[in-house]
Amino acid sequence: MRSIAEARVEARRIFDRNLGGWAWSAVQGEPAERIPLALNLQPPTGDEALDRVAEMREWSSAWHDFAGAGEVEFATRRFRYLGTQSVPVRLHLEQPAEVAAFIASTAHWRALVARLGELVAQWPDMSRPDAAAVRRVLDVPTSSWSHVVGFLRWSADLDLSELLPRQIAFPGVDSKWFDQNRPLLVALRAAGAGTRRLTTRQIDSRMLVRVLDPALRAEVGGLAEFAAPATELARLVWAPGEVIISENLQSAYSFGDRPGCVVLAAQGYAVEAYGGLPWLQRAHVRYWGDLDTHGFAILNRLRHHLPRVDSVLMDADTLLAHRSLWAREEKPQSAQLPLLTASEREAYEVLLSEPNARLEQERLPWGVVEAAFGVSVAGRELR
């Protein structure tokens, strides 16, 4: 027996899934998909009615008294010991607007249709935006919507690719506003709200470099650490013998001086940048990431760019020896990773089979790290 509240939950689920298509159909004057909608009210069987008499009567009475959007369909049923009953069987909702009214979302529905209508009036040949963009259209505050339409109209034929958002000269648009609304603006432009692709100049991400060798530091003006875009790092004329890539920033800062060594840190999945560093191709590269499914996915991706990279502390022995330090991986991945070594693959398979098998690199005792790398940590030399 589906109560009014439960019917609203189901109607909300259907409404949210079909919102973009329904609103677009309303703007275009076309029939909407999955409309009319008939919600099954799940009337009881004879045995259920007999076992739950009071509940059935309360449920039936609520639907008989229902005065909201839609039309309740009743059927005459005869139940053993209970006689003939008028039982609610379906709620019919004929239009998306009626579904919206039933779930108390009329204002949102009207706002979305009005906003999409405004876009189509400006760009009649515009195609339907994707579902995520439609949701963003609805989420734009009322005070900001005019800026969205105005900016799209103003920039429709402009090339902004050489400008930072800070340099865009449109009233009411600053870098914060642009960054917040960029996904929507890009999606609407792609759907036809303007002709020129919406791109702006982006500040290049910086890669952290720690120089552990005093001789190498002398080659970069005495700097022990610095950050620069990969395109600039590629122009360095030096030859580190060893490069350690650490996914954890604090781990990267834990290494003391080491002859011929450089540490790079915290690029995550963006490992393509490493492949563009000529001096990295010539060095012995050691990767140290978390012992979790994403750590191995990053390592596998890195080997597409640096095939000879070795991993450190990313094997089954390390994982199993520190079971007490495991944590749960909230969003594991399970892709095939063909570039892992046998010991790495063994650890990866443990991670796939054990939901609580995640070992973050920062949890490993420093002594274990020192022994694995054979280097000083926090400035202490191994003896």
TrEMBL record:
InterPro entries: DUF3322 (IPR024537), JetD_C (IPR024534), UCP028408 (IPR014544). It comes from the Bacteria. Residues 204-371 form the Wadjet protein JetD C-terminal domain. Residues 6-188 form the DUF3322 domain. This is DUF3322 and DUF2220 domain-containing protein. It comes from Marisediminicola antarctica.
